[in-house]
Amino acid sequence: MAHDHPHPHHHHDRDPHAPVNESHGVRADSAALERALRELLIEKGVFTAEDIRRQIEITESRTPELGAKVIAHAWVDPAYKAWLLKDAKAAIQQFLGIDLNLTPELVVVENTPRLHHMICCTLCSCYPRAVLGIPPAWYKSPEYRSRTVIEPRTVLAEFGTRIADDVEIRVVDSTADMRYIVLPLRPRGTEGMSESELAAIVTRDSMIGVAVLDDVRR
Amino acid sequence: MSARFAPGDRVTVLARDMATHCRTPYYLRGKRGVVARVLGAYANPEELAYHRLGIPFQPLYQVAFDYAEVWGKREPNTVITADIFQHWLEAAN
Amino acid sequence: MTRGVHDLGGLPAGPVDLNEHDRTFFDQRVDAMMRLLAHPEQGYYTVDAMRRAIEALPREDYFGLTYYERWVRAMRALVIEKGLISESELQRKLAAIAAGGDR
């Protein structure tokens, strides 16, 4: 899928999203506490090392690529799009074939030429993890959480995104049980693209609402 | 517990103080908005946070707030929405 | 009116740092343990309890620790609160680790 703004420490010979090291930036007491809790909880049979490993695998399997497939499908199939907007969890679960049963509720909000949505969680870091995976660090940052609800256009500008003054910006604060995904406006120049070609241009940031997708020149 | 409000209803977020866990942000306390969506009913997070069951489920609403109402200054074409539980809302004039 | 340390909407803050921090193995393990402990069916407490425990952190920890460091401290409070481990067991284990106990 398309990448958002460049990764400063991107190495071309490895998966840029794989962990780089054990515990960069983590204090020694935190690392010791994590190890102590993990060992004790395993000793007590609360979970096993295999449970942890399997959970990591499931978590890593959820990525923006999954969301991009959903978006592309909604763009090409109006009936699916209607379903997605009405009952996102059921529509996503069925289309992707993943089990979302015990995950939070999902709502897909549609951008139009007159309306742009921007998702945040001022109180913590609520994010549609079950579909899009782990949120980016900036989404969880105090700066994004504080400022998005009070100066959305300025924050968007920091992402290089400008929304026209006559377009309504709707900042969606995920304060309770719902997790939100933006259905971005389909860019111009994509008529005739296949569904998988469309999925390849949908970015994570467009599904959060901090970016819009550029028109395509063929 | 049945939903008291419907989309389009004008509501005010209670200006209550709460020292324990709650999901009604400080910046929206006492603010007026309009119900945009009825989201269903869910266990009360204020109770779940302390290992209590949080039942009966409380109706939850997506409420839309005009920027000027929230921050006291104009910013055209900007709306903030938040998902607020029924027990934090009262009907506005 | 009381404003929790976590309740940030509208507070002044600097520019958003767009650097994508690579996730570490520490992050992954903490994330996984949290999901297991707060699992809706097989877990021991809720995500709401996790949030409450994070919100109870002192200000300097809330802003001074990394995201997953906050989680691991919340996890510590909750597993003791739920009686899964005791404080003295934890202290013994930490001492053993500090003394160079092997993996």
How does this structure look, described?
The complex is a heterotrimer of chains A (218), B (93) and C (103). With 218 residues, chain A is of the alpha/beta class. In chain A, 41% of the residues lie in helices and 11% in strands. Chain A folds into 2 domains: 28-60, no CATH class; 62-208, Nitrile Hydratase, Chain A, CATH 3.90.330. In chain A, the strands form 2 sheets. Chain A has a two-stranded parallel ribbon with strand order 1-4. The radius of gyration of chain A is 19 Å and the shape is globular. Chain B has helices spanning 45-48, 67-71; strands at residues 10-13, 32-42, 58-66, 78-85, 89-91. In chain B, strands 4-3-2-1-5 form a 5-stranded antiparallel beta sheet. Chain C has 103 residues and is mainly α. Chain C has one domain (25-98): Nitrile hydratase, beta subunit (Cyclin A, domain 1, Orthogonal Bundle), CATH 1.10.472.20. Chain C has helices at residues 25-37, 47-55, 59-64, 67-81, 87-98. In chain C, 40% of the residues are buried. The interface between A and C is large, with 61 and 56 residues.
Averaged pLDDT of chain B, please?
Answer: 97
Extended strand count of chain C: 0
Main sheet makeup of chain B = 5 strands, antiparallel
Oligomer: heterotrimer
Structural shape of chain B: globular
> In terms of structural class, how would the helical and strand content of chain B be classed?
mainly beta
What's the tally of helices of chain B?
A: 2
Q: CATH superfamily of chain C, please?
A: Nitrile hydratase, beta subunit
SSE order of chain B: EEHEHEE
SS-derived structural category of chain C: mainly alpha
Termini Cα gap of chain C? 48 Å
